[in-house]
Design brief:
By secondary structure, this protein is of the alpha+beta class. 32% of the residues lie in helices and 21% in strands.
Length: 80
């Protein structure tokens, strides 16, 4: 199976591999492979990896920075 959703891969696979530049950068158990520093470098986007509070499976999510929040605004819908 080749999912691109790393959280899905972590939830169902005993081992995962991360490709970078067409080569395997790292492979092994999801808890060891899904590392913030490595995935941020591979995806050229800061990510967060943290244990899910109920399952312990590490979901991977883009890291929201202040710059992103400022570009998108406050998120508040303004009505006339």
């Amino acid at each position: 199976m080749v999912p691109h959703d790393l959280g899905l891969a972590a939830a169902h696979a005993d081992r995962v591999g991360v490709l970078h530049g067409g080569r395997i950068a790292v492979e092994g158990p999801p808890s060891e492979v899904l590392d913030e520093e490595l995935l941020s470098r591979v995806h050229r986007q800061p990510v967060e990896v943290f244990p899910h509070p109920r399952t312990g499976v590490p979901p991977v999510a883009p890291k929201r920075t202040e710059a992103v929040r400022e570009r998108r605004g406050s998120g508040t819908i303004r009505r006339p």
